[in-house]
Amino acid sequence: MGDPLSAKSVLLVGAGGLGGPVSLLLAAGGVGRIVLLDEDVVETSNLNRQPLFGEPDLERRKAVAAAERLRKLHPGVRIEARDERFAPDLADELVRGADLVVDASDNFATRFLANDAAVTAGRPLVHGAVLRYTAQFLTVMPGKTGCLRCLFEAPPAEGSVPTCAQAGVLGALAGFAGALMGAEALRLLGGDRGAYAGRLVTFDARTGKSRLVTLRIRPGCPICSGAAGATREAP
Question: How far is residue 133 from each of residues 13, 148, 158, 205, measured CA to CA in Å?
Answer without folding.
Answer: 22, 21, 21, 5
